[in-house]
Design the sequence.
């Protein structure tokens, strides 16, 4: 049994902090990415607009999905009447998308998966960043 422990020294001025969930707009890839837990993931494409991030290694009580990506944001936002400027609450974005395409694969999956993410509070997406 190896009982040695490793010490990692950080460069001066570098601080580590706890992970906190995040939602952000990637303007170059035209998508909103939502990350709720710090895990390695396998991405599962649901349709042309939605990709789920499934945790590769999870504990018994951890959620199966730890994030998702909404692609084609410019097109989707234009379709549902959301402005591409400013800051939007993630819950509002999902609500608009689900109501716009009821019964679609994307709306059904978002309704189911977002239930797990609500415990992280209401994340905001800054589209101007």
Sequence:
């Amino acid at each position: 049994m190896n009982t040695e422990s490793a010490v990692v020294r950080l460069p001066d001025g570098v601080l580590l902090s706890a992970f906190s969930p995040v939602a952000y707009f990637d303007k170059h890839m035209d998508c909103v990415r939502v990350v709720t837990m710090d895990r390695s993931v396998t991405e599962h494409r649901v349709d042309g607009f939605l990709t789920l991030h499934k945790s590769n290694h999870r504990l018994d009580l951890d959620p199966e999905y730890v994030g998702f990506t909404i692609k084609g944001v410019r097109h989707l936002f234009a379709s549902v009447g959301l402005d591409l400027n400013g800051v939007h609450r993630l819950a509002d974005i999902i609500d608009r998308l689900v109501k716009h395409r009821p019964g679609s694969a994307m709306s059904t999956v978002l309704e189911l998966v977002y239930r797990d993410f609500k415990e992280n509070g209401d994340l905001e997406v800054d589209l101007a960043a």
